Amino acid sequence: MESPQDKYIREHSSKPNEALDWLQKQTNILTNYPRMLSGAVQGEFLKLMVEISGAANILEIGCFTGYSAICLASGLKEGGHVDTLEINDELEALCLEAWTRAGLQDKIQLHIGNALDYMERFAQEGRQYDLVYIDANKREYPLYLKAVKSLIHSGSIILADDVMLGGKPEELPSRPDKQTAGLLEFNSAVVSDPELEVVMLPLRDGLSLIKKL
To answer: Does pLDDT of 171 surpass 80?
Structure first.
């Protein structure tokens, strides 16, 4: 259920385009966990972050049905590019159709497989990203952080989703599950890293805005 606060925020944020509306409906129909989709408010935040930062090369870790990739790519200037990583190959057709509907198929490249394997390969190729969006397996967030640091430069931005432990950090169990433990380790690693500057925002289940110094 959408809270009154979330409803007010959504109603006073820019509206998604037709391709995003279509994709949200398809995600609700075709997937078991449609809440994993970023949604209108977070999607607009991602788009604005790309526009404001001027990011040209973007890495997305965790694509799901491709909603956030559309938002990221929508903020790119001419010549910009998004590499997005997704382990579930069953979502490929839906992603590609959505990106075509949005007219962004030439700006987004989908890589199906293990995210850490791809990041190791990208590092070996010398790729560098201006912005990285992390929204995949919460248990692996600490590993993603280590891998991402070899793919970014001074001034690069990392956006990490779901960092507020389901949106209820005050209800943290005494024995956290592996996903929660991964998020806890990630949050501690980020805030204690002298090469990173971070602010955690209470957007949905928490979104950390991180800058490489």
So the answer is: no
